[in-house]
Amino acid sequence: MQSIIVIPARLASTRLPNKPLADIAGVPMIVRVWHRAKASGVGPVLVAAAESEIAATIERAGGVAVLTDPALASGSDRIFHALQAYDGDGRFDVVVNLQGDLPDIDPHDIRRVVETLVSSGADIATLAAPIDDPADYDNPNVVKPVVAWDSGGQSGRALYFTRARAPAGEGVLFHHVGIYAYRRDALARFVGLAPSPLERREKLEQLRALEAGMTIAVARVERVPLSVDTPEDLARARAALAEAEGQQHR
């Protein structure tokens, strides 16, 4: 199977305007994510850019971008339209949707989500990491997947995703990591579906797939990558990456 990574990006973020172009230790965030995607070795990397400023930034870095309609409703719609423009002949049959606000995602985790899709036979694959801060159990900004794990606890099938604490009782709770691998026909089906009732209620797009009977495989990873959604997140990312890169040069 041939894989491609598509990174959706737009400037009109409500909580952090111009987020993809935010400087993190001298490098725009979208370029950092692009570098991580390239390092995974999964396949070509394409940025689905809602604005020409994002496309120009990626092209200056040596990457490839496709301009998409800023009015598209979601990142999934954006990657699908970019894919159709870039690969109308259908050469790539696995499509990775990598969020553009994960500047320190581990390239190994990108490979892991593709391997999980291929080995599971599911329509979609994604990742989850254990929650290590009890304060996040009831944090609505931390999405929790409810997973039927296999006996080894390393992979499983998603039953639900929620912003509430779930499942109830004793045991590990998991934090959903914002990366998906789709079979190409599954992506086409997904973007053709109308938003579902649970999706609208939880404000979680992946519930549309589950309500439509699509299968989502989940692989366990041990670390949640930095996710930049607010000015406070950006400050933390700047500090963490500046420190990490300073240590590399010592």
List the helices and strands and how they pair.
Blueprint: E1 3-9, E2 23-24, E3 27-28, H1 29-40, E4 45-49, H2 52-60, E5 64-67, H3 75-86, E6 94-98, H4 107-120, E7 124-130, E8 144-149, E9 155-162, E10 174-183, H5 184-192, H6 197-202, H7 206-211, E11 216-220, H8 231-248
Parallel strand pairs: 1-4, 1-6, 4-5, 7-11
Antiparallel strand pairs: 2-3, 6-10, 7-10, 8-9, 9-11
Helix pairs in contact: 1-4
Explained architecture:
Strands 5-4-1-6-10-7-11-9-8 form a 9-stranded mixed beta sheet, with helices on both faces. The protein has a two-stranded antiparallel sheet with strand order 2-3. The longest helix is centred in the C-terminal third of the chain and has 18 residues. The mean pLDDT is about 95. The protein is globular. By secondary structure, the protein is of the alpha/beta class. Helix 2 links the parallel strand 4 and strand 5.
What is the beta-strand fraction? 15-25%
Stretches where pLDDT is under 50 for at least 5 consecutive residues are: none
**Biggest sheet, in brief?**
9 strands, mixed
Q: In which order are the strands of the major sheet placed?
A: 5-4-1-6-10-7-11-9-8
**Beta strand count:** 11
Distance between the termini: 41 Å
Write down the Rg: 17 Å
Helix residue percentage: 25-40%
Tally the helices. 8
| Helix and strand sequence | EEEHEHEHEHEEEEHHHEH
Structural class: alpha/beta
Overall pLDDT level: 95
